[in-house]
Structure formats: C-alpha cells, structure tokens
Amino acid sequence: MNNIKLTSYSSGAGWACKINPKDLGKILEKLNKNNLELPNNVVGYESSDDCSIYPIDNKNLLIQSLDFFTPIVDDPYDFGRIAATNSLSDIYAMGGKPIFALNITCFPTDDLPLEVLHEILRGGSDIAKQAGIPILGGHSIKDKEPKYGLVVSGIVNKKQIIRNNNAQINDNLILTKPIGTGIISTAIKRKLASKNDIKNIVDIMTDLNSKGSNAMNKTTVNACTDITGYGLLGHLKEMCESSRVQANINFEKIPLIDNTMNFAEKDIIPGGTKRNFEYLNDFLNFNTKIPMFKKLIMADAQTSGGLLISVSKENTNYLIDELNKQKCLTTSIIGNISKKESDYLINIVWKIF
Fold first, then answer.
1. The domain defined by 6-157 carries CATH number 3.30.1330.10
2. Mean pLDDT of the residues in the chain
C-alpha cells in the first residue's frame, strides 16, 4: 500500500481531467436544441448552474449534483476525502443542505489491490459523516483509471436558494479558498512537491464549503458558484454570462496556495488549465503588466475549490464577519461587478479597487 502512487494511474489529476469547456459547450448546445421544455421551477444543465433543481413541495426544492474524477494525490484515503468534499460543494454553493449521497467509482481491479478501493471509499465515508449525511449505495465498474465521487442530493427552501445568475452591478466578489490546486497537483505528479505542499493542498481540498454556505445563509447574497474544473475565470465567466454583467478582478487580491506562483513560473501547469485559458481568452481583457503564467493561474483547473460569492456593498462586511466566524480559509474581496459595456466579460487589472 505504501508503495502505490495513485496519480501514476491517471492521465490527468482531479478536475484537470475534465472535458474541454469549448467541446462540452458544443455538445450541450446540440442537446439543448432537442431537449423537451422543462416544467416551471425545474433547472437542468442548460443554465450552467451548480445543481439541477426540482420542486418537491410548495416550500422546498430538491437540488442534486454528480461529481467524480481521477486521483489528485497518491494516498487513497485522502483521494476519497477530497473527491467527497468536492462532490458536496455544489449543494453548498446553492445555499442548500445535503441529505444523502451515492458512491460512484471506477477501479482497475487487475492492477491494484482491493484494499486501495476500500481506503478510497473509507475516505469518502468519513467526509460524508462530517457533513452529517449517509451514503446509501452507489455503482462501480472496472476501469483502467481509478475514479471516485458522489451523487449528492440536497434540499433548500425556495426563498433561500442561491444561483449563479443574479450577480448585481456594484456587488463585491469574495473567494473563500485560495486557488492553485491544479498546479500543485501537477507538481505532485512530477514528484516536485514537498511533503508540506502535499499536506497543505490536502487540508485545503478537504475543507468543506458548508462553512461558506452557513455564512451566506445568515445574510443576503446575490449569487454564488463553487470553483472547480474550469478555474476561477471559467466559473466567473458563467456567472457573468448568466447574470448579463461584467466582472473586474484585481490579480493581486486573489489568494494563492503556497508555491503556486513558483511552480507556475516554471511551467508546471496542467493541460486542463491551458485548455481553460485557450477557451476563455476571447472573453478576457488583461492588464498588459500581467505575464502569461499569472494569467494561467487564474484559469487553473481547481479541485474542491472554494465558493465565489457576489454580494452587495451593503452586506459585504457582514458576510465577511460571518465567513470569519465560520473559519473559512480566505475572505478576500477579489473584485466587483459592473455593467457590461464591452464584448469582454471579465477585466483583470493590476490595482487596488
């Protein structure tokens, strides 16, 4: 067990294995044209929101999400914990409460001992217990690459649901975790990361976004999304597009995981991150002082990232106080929302607002 390196069995680590957003967009566009019209208050993939939404009575909505991916760290137990934490995040991003989950796993039974799969599932189970929910079953298949995640069902009051399509002009943007997991995980795969780098990234990726969700539910926020495979800029682009607004981001205010900058400057960057940037570049307006490796950091494919919250100026300090009470990893104001006045969705500047 100690000699097994899970990341050596995967072609891409964590959410860096996600399908190119440009390719996925083409597929979903074709499906949307042929999709049946959805009933009122039902939301599917066509909105790019974090969860599907289905009304179950006059007050409550069922929200559901599915996430799974390849190993981002070598330790099976930690991989299970990270994947489960990530799977729960979509529920928390919508202000919801998870109620139960199902396992989904792919595993190379001919190449790895079953004890490895046990440790992966044990890690997922421990995170589910921490979140206060049961795992009621699941599905497994034999595969060359190990993969793991959860289907998570949650519930939210209709009046409290937080979507990604309601960012308002003059809102502040707050991020609750530092970014850089894609870059650090690439360093792990290349055996360049220290033990401290690995411990740090595991601690960040297993930090439940329930804390940010609890804080949001104690105040009023306008929009939220969790930061995963399409990176900070990719998920912010979805928020701006669906809200019909423009975002302004201050690079120097973005919290980064330790050593992210050092590795990125040496081009230790996952392919998924570079594909993200290639897709997003037409929507971005960069300050000329920002070098390419810093641009790529902002598009870095995140695994189990934090919440990106759009909140009015009036409620910003109250939200930050609540985030601090919940002990969120960061409470950085990284930018703001403005009226859309150009073809760009996101302006990245080099100054303090």
1. yes
2. 89
